Amino acid sequence: MSIRRAINIAFTGVSIALASIHVYADPVVGKPAPVFSGKAADGSTINLADLKGKTVVLEWTNHDCPYVQKHYDQSSNIPGLQKDATGNDVVWLQVISSAPGKQGNVDGATAISLNEKRNAVPTNIILDPEGTIGKLYDAKTTPHMFVINNDGALVYKGGIDSIKTTNPADIPKAVPYVKEALEALSAGQPIKNSATAPYGCSIKYAG
């Protein structure tokens, strides 16, 4: 093998590695949110690019996770946030990245039924069993929250609130990060806590 060919092969390998890093890099607050297209529970296709001009919330969820149950079945905290947000023209998208055979994986009909039983009112539910969107956003837990402004920039990422327990009694005592972010965004104010640590169950990615 010639030296030139060896250099070209090495350069190609580095380029591929860098491209991979770029695709799955941790999304940065203040920068454009990673664009995606995903299948919704109702059979439609959701393209983030089509939602420019709207505030968008991404909520990673797993109905079997006790941290998720804290905010749904035991308190209705997240359904309340969804109701307030969607009533103010915010697009709220649940994302389910649990792989087939793993905790939290459901089909579209089941996902819709679960929300009806919990009085949850997201705009839609994205099914991501391959984990493509989850890895694009470096989503780690359920719940893990992201807020995107009407210019398509990521303005919040992190936890639903500040107290990392499964106890619903802690919700009123916690700093409600997502609620505060949406209120600040609506008022044209800076978001005080724009990047926080998420907490919850690990997302059940394939492998």
- The CATH class turns out to be Alpha Beta
Helix share bin:
25-40%
What structural class do you assign from the helix and strand content?
alpha+beta
* The CATH topology: Glutaredoxin
Main beta sheet: strand number and arrangement?
A: 7 strands, mixed
- Into how many domains do the coordinates divide? 1
Q: From the 3D coordinates, which CATH architecture would you assign? A: 3-Layer(aba) Sandwich
| Mass-distribution shape | globular
Q: Average pLDDT, to the nearest integer?
A: 91
Uncertain runs are 1-24
Following the backbone from N to C, one meets helices and strands in this order, namely HEEEHHEHEHEEEHE
If you compute it from the alpha carbons, what radius of gyration comes out, rounded to the nearest whole angstrom?
A: 18 Å
- Spatial strand arrangement across the major sheet: 2-1-5-4-3-7-8
How many strands in all? 9
- Report the span from N to C terminus: 37 Å
Number of helices in the DSSP assignment? 6
Corresponding CATH superfamily: Glutaredoxin
Strand content: 15-25%
